[in-house]
Amino acid sequence: MTQKTQKTKEPQKKSLVSPILASIFSAIIPGLGQILARAYQRGIILLASFLTMGGLLTWRIYLEGRRYQDIKIIIQKAFQLSPILKTIAILLVILYIWIIVDAYLAAKKSNQGSRSYGSGLLFFVLAVFFLLGWQIGDINIGNFFSQADEAIPTIGRILWPWEKAIDRPEEILTIATEIQTPCTDVEFPAAVVKEDEPYMLVTPTCGEPTAVDSTPGTEFHLIGGNFNTDQEIEIWWKDGNGNEFRQRQGGEYIKVMPDSEGNFEISIIMPYRLIASSSDKGATLWEVQARQLLSIGEAQLSEEFTLAVEKMIETIIIGMMATLFGVIMAIPLCFLAARNLMSQNIFTKIIYYIVRTILNVIRSIEPLIWAIIATIVVGLGPFAGIIALTIHSIAALAKLYSEAIEGIDSGPIEAIQATGANWMQTIMYAVIPQIVPPFVSFTIYRWDVNIRMSTVIGFVGGGGIGFLLQQWIRLLDYRAAGIAVWFIALTVMILDYVSAEIRERYK
Question: Is the pLDDT of residue 376 over 60?
Answer without folding.
Answer: yes
